[in-house]
Amino acid sequence: PKYVYDFTEGNKDLKDLLGGKGANLAEMTNIGLPVPPGFTITTEACRHYLSHGGMPDGLEGEIGEHLAALEARMGKRLGQADDPLLVSVRSGAKFSMPGMMETVLNIGLNDDSVLGLAKQSGNDRFAWDSYRRLIQMFGKTVLGIDGELFEDAMDALKGERDDTDLDAADLQRLVETFKGIVRERTGRDFPADPREQMDLAVRAVFDSWNAPRAILYRRQERIPADLGTAVNVVAMVFGNMGPDSGTGVAFTRDPGSGRQGVYGDYLRNAQGEDVVAGIRNTVPLQELETINPEAYRELLDIMATLERHYRDLCDIEFTIERGKLWMLQTRVGKRTAAAAFCIATQLVDEGLIDMDEALTRVTGDQLAQLMFPRFAATAGNRRLTTGMNASPGAAAGRAVFSSERAVELAGQGEAVILVRRETNPDDLAGMIAAHGVLTSRGGKTSHAAVVARGMGKTCVCGAEELEVDPHARRFTAPGGIVVNEGDVISIDGGTGAVYLGEVPVTASPVARYFEGEPAEDELVRAVDRIMTHADSARRLAVRANADTPEDAARARRYGAQGIGLCRTEHMFLGERRRLVEDLILATTPEERQAALDALEPLQTGDFTGIFTAMRGLPVTIRLIDPPLHEFLPDLTDLAVKVALAEERAGEGADDRDRRLLDAVKRLHEQNPMLGLRGVRLGLTIPGLFAMQVRAIATAARRVEDARAEIMIPLVGAVQELEIVREEAEGILAEAGVEAAIGTMIEVPRAALTAGQIAEAAEFFSFGTNDLTQMTWGFSRDDVESAFFGRYLDLGVFGVSPFESVDREGVGRLMRIAVEEGRRTRPDLKLGICGEHGGDPDSVHFCHEIGLDYVSCSPFRIPVARLEAGRAAL
Ligand code: PEP
Ligand code: MG
Predict the structure, then answer these.
(1) Cofactors per UniProt (predicted)?
(2) Can you give the residue ranges of every domain in the chain?
(3) What is the pTM of this model?
(4) What pLDDT, on a 0 to 100 scale, did the predictor assign at position 623?
């Protein structure tokens, strides 16, 4: 295979092979934008290197040829002593992983070529600054030396000065110090051979694919672990050549709101990573108009070209070398959830995309984020400062000052806000653990901002008035207010405000829209348009899991087309528990019937309320499911109570308690999820299911337009269903009520014998919670906290099968049930009511296998509607 592509050979559709950066550099090159020449080493080469522990045959030679071509084009050789070509070696995977992998700049410098560079540029300071940067980056990323050693040495030299105040002599001295660090730490000299520098840097980039922070980031973002990264070798252009040079990052639209306008940061006389790393504070991009009007106008033109070309918001990195603009990167930019909706509809209005495409540009996860609550009145809280509103949302928690501490406290169930001067990729674990991120330095394109936006995590950055002291674990706000580790603060990612103490939260405008408020602001109008389009595109109906009239009513406001699961056991708790105890304690048929008779009117009332809230829409009521002992007191508590009472009063313990204790012991199960529950209860406790069916029938007669469906849980054999069905049909006929009778498919045997079960069922509803539990043999109540973390690390699965349907295993059973069920009964109605019904990926799967509806919790209904629409495109 061909392992190396010149920028003129690639294009934006080759991301799998060239990575995002390489593919887009090629694309920009080909549309005539000013990109420094270079080439890309493919992800395929990386995958070979990682799996075989060495470079593939032929790669070396190919790199040599492309380097020679680059040298010929530039008229100078890599590291040539009197006029060196310098290159950067940059990582670039298919999916952007901001700052997670390595990049080395200024490759080709050594003790000789630094003099050539100084002479050619007429700028000693610049040459030595570039050389010290090379040793520093190379030392840290390629040779694995602790970066702080270099930073400390530089800080010691700088004293109170800025890095731009260091002169050529200072920097030359720093180079000697840095070389000393390399010698001391690695036992060898900094490699002077330019090609060796380049080859080692390429390997380091490949290796960085498996750096711990990269692995963590991929897991968080669900990026497959086996893609590998490409490597881009690019002729250097220099932003650190003096005041007429600089480097910057920009977005073609505001990634927070979608509004069009100039949005970016610029840093004069600086190179590459300085901007994102927040080393010095940047200036807003608008100031470039004053600094260099020509480059500014060219940049705006290029941004417009890119938006038209990509038909989307793009972000860019650029460098200005002595007034000349160069493009170093572009990609379709990350954006906040709000901006995603706004931009999608803006692009429709600008004629760049149609509504179908707009629907593909947003996700259910983004919609869910927009439904998050935000801060209510903040009057009672002291505002400490206002930083930049880098990633929206509202978060309150204890201030922590290191990633480790964030992870530790979050592990104890505490909400934490990670407070840093600036974040770097090593803070990733803490950012994931924290509810929000607050930094005192860096702009809206800083690492903290970009990563937080990608995660949908609240972030306020660049709150410059705060003095953050990570060693003392505290920060000081204006007015001398000190916030120590553990003190509660609240941050508003929408406004940038930082408050002392916990601020109460309120519903978001998007949530209020789903509650029925009119669509007034731009975002809500955009959501409304896209939801309307999703509803017209989707084939799947969306129902709710709800078992109170209030939940049913909310679900209906959110667009539910019925109830897919009403869990009746939730109606037996609270004060009614005693009636269930009576049922369990009954020793004669008369006692049992009396207990059931007491429950029936209550159940009738429950169903009446729900049918009323859902008038005209189908309501699937599931007969009682969980093991009975769940309604009884805890064995230990009760045993202690009985023992104490007996001790106090001889034999005088309450007789009911003693009988209860006997019942608890009798009903105790080693493995209750596999025990006496679901249809098995119905077949062993006479009258229980009949009572429920009668209550349904009575309620259905009371409410006009009630559409009851009766669902039997945990069926594994058609015989179970037939027995229950016969009794239920009798009761319904007697009451003169029509109701469909169907079953859950949540035991693997039910899926495997679906053809038979469909003889007795008018509908199936996949109970994927139990179906996953029983297919994997994973206790749904225990395993996620016990060992799923390890399983995710080991790559047994990329996401918990309780979150997203395991397509190969559980999904296979579902396919079998769909196919064989429909073969028996072509008009069999099919749905899903496990938690997966509100999970975006699972909704797509349900669409693919031909279900009729998904059912999920009321708050997930909008997400399911949106994803069902996307699935249908
Ligand atoms: C299921 O098992 O997926 C289901 C919906 O039932 P429950 O969660 O009540 O067991
Ligand atoms: Mg179940």
Answers:
(1) Mg(2+)
(2) 4-235, 246-332, 372-506, 538-627+669-871, 638-667
(3) 0.81
(4) 97
